[in-house]
Amino acid sequence: MSDLEALATHHLREGERRFSRWDGALFEALVVGPGKRLAAGLDGSESSLRAFEAWLGLVVEAIGLGYIRPGVAPEGDTPRARRPENLVEWLFVDMLPESLPAAPIEARMGLLAKAWNLGEGLFGEPPWLNLCVASAMAAPSAVASPGARFDLEGRLLRILDAALAPRARSTWKGPFAVRTIDLREVESAFLPGRVHFGAPTLVCVHDRKRPDLSAGVLLGARGAPNLAFRSPCLADKVEADPSLPTVTLGQGVVYVSDTKVPLPHWKRGHSVAASRAGFVVATALDSQRLWLVESP
Question: What is this structure's pTM?
């Protein structure tokens, strides 16, 4: 038995000993899948063994506490049933097995500790926010800059700021600014359909033809970047707000109450929604764009 196999067996027994609802099959799936990828990237040195053991120990804790649940890792020949739905799942199933070997040797243990602390901290927040952060962190655009790969805290803070920064309730008096968001970065064949808000600055966009495919978009304030990412449905979390204006689609325009706002490149409208933060989002039947209208 190799050192890595011995470590995995030891931690399997630890999980059985410590947790009454221990899922041994899930642990084995994580060892055979993400664990094998992580081990293949390490060089077999003593420091690498310590990093692998630390990852195993935190995986045991995550399974025992219910942070990592069945379906997020492939089991045998069966592909995984779902994408990560919280930050701990994404970090320990997807990100760390791929990225930890590339981290400087002296930084690996700190990166594991940082990942655990950030991921566990989000379990004190609403579940939709944890799901949103996990999906947004996984988006390619979230690591566009060279130093962003290991800057977990910086990336998390940017996402939280976009999702939670206080926004004054819009007066809806204009002026109205219009911009478009290309959702091909989420999936090349994505066809935007029904839209709804999960939070005042978080919109969920469903693919018109594939019910199991949807995207989340964190909307930046005027002039700030937006962040689009593939995500499970973020659900309609915003309660009905009678103070919102009536929004309807017309030929080349959207009507916000009685105000007509022209939409560039717009022909056949499909779906529209508004939020108290002053955002109106709309989709068309013949475009991969998402139209965003904003009013102070």
Answer: 0.76
